[in-house]
Hints:
six-stranded mixed beta sheet; two-stranded antiparallel sheet; alpha+beta
Amino acid sequence: xxxxxxxxxxxxxxxxxxxxxxxxxxxxxxxxxxxxxxxxxxxxxxxxxxxxxxxxxxxxxxxxxxxxxxxxxxxxxxxxxxxxxxxxxxxxxxxxxxxxxxxxxxxxxxxxxxxxxxxxxxxxxxxxxxxxxxxxxxxxxxxxxxxxxxxxxxxxxxxxxxxxxxxxxxxxxxxxxxxxxxxxxxx
Length: 187
């Protein structure tokens, strides 16, 4: 028994356009190497308008899926796990933040990774330009009643951007942060 699916001409044209776009990206990656870079997003016309997409309506999530396909799922996961298995990671180019963190747990459900990290807030530092313009230990900055919540949000943003640059942009596989622990809370 066969199931028939009817699609409109517009839908068929969109599928053909996506396939054409995918072939262009594969050729691009053949020449310059796989990855989602600023150059690639500019070259292929991606802009932020309620999500990263280009004028053809191709979304970045489509491009991520194609990157994973280009690499092969196994190779993409291998690249990601190689990154996750590093003993320690360093944030030193994220605003005024400098700290190390470890990735304590990684779960792979086949569609995305879920990660748990521990931040070394005892030795980490942040330059609080809008508060007093001086360097503070992350632990002390986190403890502030006035801005501690903001420090934790910015730490999470720094970690997210760092992992995104090293996993999503190199493999196309997405991730979510399960939790962020702090060394000073653990003991």
